Amino acid sequence: MEQTQPAIPTHRPNWWKRNWKWFVPAGCLTVVLLFVVFVGSILVIVFSAMKSTEVYKDALARAKANPVVIEALGSPLKDGFLVSGNTNVNGASGESNLAIPISGPKGKGTIYVSANKSLGRWNYSGLVVEVGQTHQRIDRLQRSAPSNSP
């Protein structure tokens, strides 16, 4: 008579014990990537909002139209991504102080703009383009001297 040996159960480790070596680094990498995407999304939203303001668009257009700025930086002028400053608008009033990086084929510069909004209209108290290499400051609000003729 043949004797059969009872089957010895083979103990197979659970899923975690089999896969933790790849799951932990992949999980950590996923968390880091999600954080980077979140921060990047916030930055894109903030900078896009600043670039859509009336003050930003007007200051950039004035710099692109100025022959002195074009001579110093070259044409075409391109705006940079990292706009700094703040804009606060509440209905028909507000204030804005921005530093807008620009560049052209000949070099880089920064547009500094300061404006107040009153009665629905922006009034600029400062609009200067500073050329990066020479630190030359080009005043875009320079008004001609009033004539003394009667």
Give an overview in words.
By secondary structure, the protein is an alpha+beta fold. It has two domains: 19-52; 53-139, Mitochondrial import inner membrane translocase subunit Tim21 (Nuclear Transport Factor 2, Chain: A), CATH 3.10.450. It contains three helices and six strands, in the order H-H-H-E-E-E-E-E-E. Strands 1, 2, 3, 4, 5 and 6 form a six-stranded antiparallel beta sheet that branches. A hairpin with a 5-residue loop joins strand 5 (121-131) and strand 6. The longest helix has 37 residues, at 15-51. It is elongated.
Q: What would CATH call the homologous superfamily of the largest domain?
A: Mitochondrial import inner membrane translocase subunit Tim21
> What is the CA-atom radius of gyration, in angstroms?
30 Å
> How many structural domains?
2
CATH class of the largest domain: Alpha Beta
Please give the number of β-strands.
6
Distance between the termini: 136 Å
Can you write the helix and strand succession as a string?
HHHEEEEEE
Question: What is the general shape?
Answer: elongated
Q: How many helices does DSSP assign?
A: 3
* Largest sheet features: 6 strands, antiparallel
Question: What is the element layout, followed by pairings?
Answer:
Elements (H helix, E strand, L loop, with lengths): L14 H37 L2 H12 L1 H7 L4 E2 L4 E7 L2 E12 L2 E12 L2 E11 L5 E3 L11
Antiparallel strand pairs: 1-3, 2-3, 3-4, 4-5, 5-6
